[in-house]
Design brief:
This protein is mainly beta. The protein contains one helix and eight strands. It has an eight-stranded antiparallel barrel with strand order 1-2-3-4-5-6-7-8. The radius of gyration is 20 Å and the shape is globular.
Length: about 140
Amino acid sequence: MKFKNCHTHFIAVALLLTVWLLAGCTRNNGDIGPIFGRWSLKSIDATNMQAPVYEGDLFLAFQNDVVQMIQTGDENRADATYGSFRLDDNTLFLEFNDPQRPVNPAFGLPATCRLQVLELTGHSLVLQYNPTDEAYLTYTFRKW
């Protein structure tokens, strides 16, 4: 009889934990739209300039007003740095002002920059950075 009662309590606790985990907030201060989440870089195309050279995988992740740049490498190594972002209309503003958390150089971006959002859907993000009027980098990401 005690075993049956213990089994019932275990199931009740497991169900409560499942509901609690599913009800957790990942969006922190509201819905930021389709840019929310982690994006995997698929390509960098350069026009009238040299494209950044990178090894490993590059990711951007957006939550609330925080952007995370991640570069993965060999042996499950990942380097991450954090900045802030703001998305106004079709312009993405990135700021990595903390010298302890600088912008990842593999992305080829300055610490403070403005990127044009060419495409933003639930699965695709295309950004363009224009350091000059004649030169630009186009970043193509897929939702990860």
